[in-house]
């Protein structure tokens, strides 16, 4: 299984020590994993520090299942753009950090049927502390048949913290509301209706911050369904208690 | 030192009479608890729903505390404010809940209360004049000491999703059963 053998993809953390030396520094690595022989290893000094300060790894598998709008989506085709955001202690070990889904529609069925995306999310993170637990931030866009694209909202959720508590045959189903920014005052409302330009957040990460979204007005309409499960390794050794 | 991680979201507010709400939250704990990383207070955006009468906040919480004693277990205080067309805001719900004492994922419902109007004139002002009365000392929220003379009405509920991770509590002899 070569999932963990891909190099750490963050710049500024490039290791130049040969792979077998790295294996010595981390004796608790699973013997089934093979070190990649390619040159994309990280710098020796931070990697040595990381080897003595042990880390745990978190593997998330799942999908963005569908989006449901109770009175139908405002535009015909809907697509999503997702981004994974984590704190400073977290490193993405494998998997894409951004993604763009297909253009999906529910035109042929009933208007409030879920619009299925079935977008896979498979990432592995490595960290020394649960602070800054990764979150997935999804921007929902709509596109009419004539090609005009428009923002339909944002949704965000923490990736699941407890994966193995649920029974094995049931993956965790998460549902998040889709929030659409509203115009700050009535004049902006009238202008946006006349010019057909709806407000968009310049940086949707503002929704993840505790103090920066003061004064923002959002309307929630629709929900996004996720099915995500997590596998963790190495946390118990560091003394963390996930379950009672 | 034992450590507690609180990771979750303040999801939504339901059963409130007003449609446009925002939530101010803060996490308070005793003297033996120290904040290592994260923010202990925040304010959400103003949320409303197109069809139902609830407000989605989806305010993420990520707090890392270190504890020297079990005394002063952290509490999450929530104040829900309503906003009207003229952008005036007034509190419509106060509530608090203790952070659960077992690790795992919890869904909590915070029932809130608000200050009741004192007479006919205050009820009119609540409807049309930009809101009802507010508490002048917010430590009434979590202390039971001086609540005797206060008249309150029940208000809606705030739903919070918390995941708790504990660390090194066993080393100090604390058991969770």
From TrEMBL, chain A:
For bias kind Basic residues, which ranges apply? 21-37
Q: Where in the cell is it found?
A: Cytoplasm, Cytoskeleton, Cilium basal body
- Region annotated Disordered, chain positions: 1-47
Query: Where is it found, in Gene Ontology cellular component terms?
Result: MKS complex
According to its UniProt record, what is one Pfam family this protein matches? Answer: B9-C2
Tell me the PROSITE patterns matching this sequence.
Answer: C2_B9
Alphabetically list the UniProt keywords: Cell projection, Cilium biogenesis/degradation, Cytoplasm, Cytoskeleton
Q: One of this protein's GO BP terms?
A: cilium assembly
Stated family = Belongs to the B9D family.
Q: Please identify the protein, giving its name as recorded.
A: B9 domain-containing protein 1
* Species, as recorded: Drosophila kikkawai (Fruit fly)
Gene that produces this protein: B9d1
Automatic annotation (TrEMBL), chain B:
Keyword Transmembrane among record annotations: no
- Keyword annotations of the record: Cell projection, Cilium biogenesis/degradation, Cytoplasm, Cytoskeleton
Q: Which residues cross the membrane?
A: none
Compartments reported by the entry: Cytoplasm, Cytoskeleton, Cilium basal body
Q: Got a GO cellular component term for this one? A: MKS complex
Q: Which GO annotations describe the biological process of this protein?
A: cilium assembly
- What family is it from? Belongs to the B9D family.
Name this protein carries in UniProt: B9 domain-containing protein 2
Q: Which organism is it from?
A: Drosophila kikkawai
Q: Which gene encodes it?
A: B9d2
